[in-house]
Specification:
Chain lengths: 575, 71
């Protein structure tokens, strides 16, 4: 091997969770390496985040916060995690404040807290993602953590050379998309924090984040959980063309969602929270309104106070810039507004199952942030949970990984094993004929984005979606790349395809409706039979499905009654 | 929605090449005006526009439909 690096802890991904993991690990071990696909502070979901995170503070009644989060997450949260996250988040915010992260302040100079999507008692703080990540980068460099940028990690090295492994994880391989340099990193422990999975929509989503960490871990043999909620919407499409982040803030400052008849349609579906309803309700409601002929839908920000727009310019400048460039003044005009449906893995919609120490079950492998199943969310809880979870899970995973290095001895990595990994990764480079990654993405969108496949599903249509992916699976074995830049795209397509398939599999399994998951054939939320987690694990070439009960009797927050409930938003294609 | 670089005002500092998360610039280093090799991959995150030391040396091409609807 040309380049081999040795380290105690390797962190894959340089967003909020990754940087926290690296910083914490460095408290215990000498050598920490952080690898990022692009450039830390200019890539990653955290950099382009919607500018809000949960902000519990000393003196808050965290028992009440837990209750609200669990209820919003429809009782599928791991409540131990929720409590841990809220308590730890207080400390993480304090630490970031000490570093001088510029959180938005009120007129007294205190951190300003607002009510965003789904919040009644819980609160958010506001920040500018880029500035936050610049500070995180500074901290990483200050602590002398080795930063390897422009390198995509493509596979994990296992001690037995098998996938799924019976042994442990002992390193990772990857390559530089500009120079093509192939990198082998031997590590005693690895934290995966490579973010969620998005499609390539050419919008505010980070198009280079495709669930690479989650896919890699699944192939290595970790369990994934909550994947059925990964076929989901996001109310972030402007004029059917633009996707920008920042909707949570816009909701927080009093935007109204109206349909073509001029009605505030969210009043019907969520009478208390209205436009601040949870994301799942908003997205399903948007689909229903349009399908029933009350579209197009608009966002009305005309009554948002002028000072809120000033804040938008500071915290979500990208979104405001888009409005400016096209000549829309949201303080005076309506903007057409809609939702997008696709596979979004991570940040509350499935991912690697871990315990409270972020251990994945495979020795030496830890998951944080968007790669983690985010047990604090349940189905999809209140806004700002994802970034708070990034802070806390990153910190915990960093510590757990560092502790693990003490007990792990040296492992011989066979040259054959490395050579196989290299060959598999580089295979598309050698093909002169074949398919382009875009063709795979397009097939996936066709199978999951239309309302009858994404928003309002049935068992039959889910099976149809799965068979629509058959063609994409064929393409995936014949991908070609002209250079290393295109090789990255090929790897991303393969990962996204795997996760799309797993999301469909899990959706077939959950025979009820909850959160983003609506089944026409099982239209009720079934608290009698379905307070369960759907868990997927790879066994040889097959996917094994297991249902794990949520031990609600052991948790402090319980539903008032255990019965079947009608959903707030329902729609049936066949009446 | 590819970025457009004004060759007259670009200082060839290489900042945009350095930071682009999607790596749409290729083969360019400080000293020459960057070449945009993968225009179709740009997701207009605006990182290059905002980091460019010269105002409006880089602009993003905003798709026509939205401009037509609202202007």
């Amino acid at each position: 091997m040309k380049s081999a690096i040795e380290t105690d802890v390797l962190v894959v991904g340089g967003g909020l969770a990754g940087t926290w993991a690296a910083l914490r690990a460095k408290d215990f071990v000498d050598s920490v390496v952080l690898v990022d696909k692009a450039r830390v502070s200019r890539s990653g979901m955290s950099t382009f985040a919607a500018g809000v995170m949960l902000c519990p503070m000393p003196g808050d009644n965290l028992r009440e916060w837990t209750e609200e989060m669990v209820q919003s997450g429809e009782y599928l949260a791991d409540q131990e995690w929720v409590e841990l996250m809220l308590h730890e988040q207080v400390e993480r915010i304090r630490e970031m404040e000490r570093w001088g992260v510029p959180f938005e302040r009120d007129c007294d100079g205190k951190i300003m807290r607002i009510l965003g999507r789904g919040h009644l008692r819980t609160r958010l703080l506001m920040f500018h993602g880029k500035k936050l990540m610049e500070e995180m980068r500074k901290q990483v460099l200050r602590k002398e953590i080795k930063l390897i940028e422009r390198t995509m990690i493509t596979g994990l090295i296992t001690s037995d050379g098998r996938y799924p492994t019976q042994g442990r994880v002992v390193g990772a391989v990857g390559f530089n998309p500009r120079t093509g340099e192939f990198l082998t990193i031997r590590a005693k422990a690895i934290v995966l924090a490579a973010g969620p999975a998005n499609g390539k929509f050419g919008g505010g989503y980070c198009d280079n984040i495709t669930g690479d960490g989650t896919a890699m871990a699944f192939n290595t043999g970790t369990e994934l959980c909550g994947m059925e909620f990964a076929i989901r919407g996001d109310p972030v499409v402007w004029d059917r063309k633009y996707i920008t982040y920042g909707i949570n803030m816009i909701q927080a400052f009093g935007a109204k969602f109206i349909n073509a008849k001029g009605e505030r349609y969210m009043e019907k579906y969520s009478p208390v929270l209205k436009e601040r309803a949870r994301k799942s309700e908003i997205c399903l409601a948007m689909c229903k309104e349009v399908l029933e002929g009350r579209g197009p839908l608009y966002c009305d920000m005309r009554e948002v106070p002028p000072e809120a727009f000033e804040r938008f310019r500071r915290v979500i400048p990208h979104t405001m810039r888009i409005f400016d460039t096209v000549g829309v003044d949201p303080s005076k005009q309506l903007i057409e507004h809609g939702t997008i449906w696709a596979i979004h893995i991570g940040s509350g919609e499935g991912g690697i199952r871990t315990n409270i120490k972020c251990e994945t079950g495979i020795p030496g492998l830890y998951a944080a942030g968007g790669n983690n199943w985010n047990p604090t969310h349940g189905t999809y809880s209140v806004g700002g949970t994802n970034l708070a979870f990034c802070n806390v899970s990153g910190y915990i995973a960093g510590e757990s990984a560092a502790q693990h290095t003490r007990q792990s001895g040296e492992v011989e990595i066979s040259a054959d094993h490395l050579e196989t990994l290299r060959e598999v990764t580089l295979a598309p480079l050698g093909r002169r004929k074949g398919y382009r990654p875009d063709e795979i993405f397009e097939r996936i969108y066709r199978a999951v984005s239309p309302a009858q496949f994404g928003a309002f599903k049935t068992g039959v249509r889910l099976e149809a979606s799965l068979s629509m992916l058959e063609e994409a699976r064929q393409f995936a074995t014949q991908l070609m790349a002209a250079n290393y830049h295109e090789l990255v795209k090929a790897c991303e397509a393969v990962n996204y395809l795997l996760l799309a398939e797993l999301a469909l599999r899990a959706s077939l399994e959950r025979k009820e409706s909850r959160g983003f998951h609506f089944r026409e054939d099982y239209p009720e939320q079934d608290d009698v039979n379905w307070l369960k987690w759907v868990i997927l694990k790879r066994e040889n070439e097959k996917v094994r499905v297991r249902l794990d009960p949520v031990h609600i009797d052991r948790y402090p927050v319980k539903p008032l009654t255990f019965e079947k409930h009608p959903r707030a938003v329902t729609y049936f294609f066949k009446k | 929605m590819p970025p457009v670089i004004d060759t007259n005002t670009c200082t060839t500092c290489g900042k945009c090449v350095d930071i682009c998360p999607q790596d749409v610039f290729f083969g360019s280093q400080g000293g020459s005006v960057p070449i945009i090799s993968y225009p179709e991959e740009c997701w207009h995150c605006n990182a290059c526009v905002q980091d460019c030391p010269v105002e409006s040396a880089i602009t993003l091409r905003i798709p026509l439909p939205l401009s037509l609807c609202y202007k």
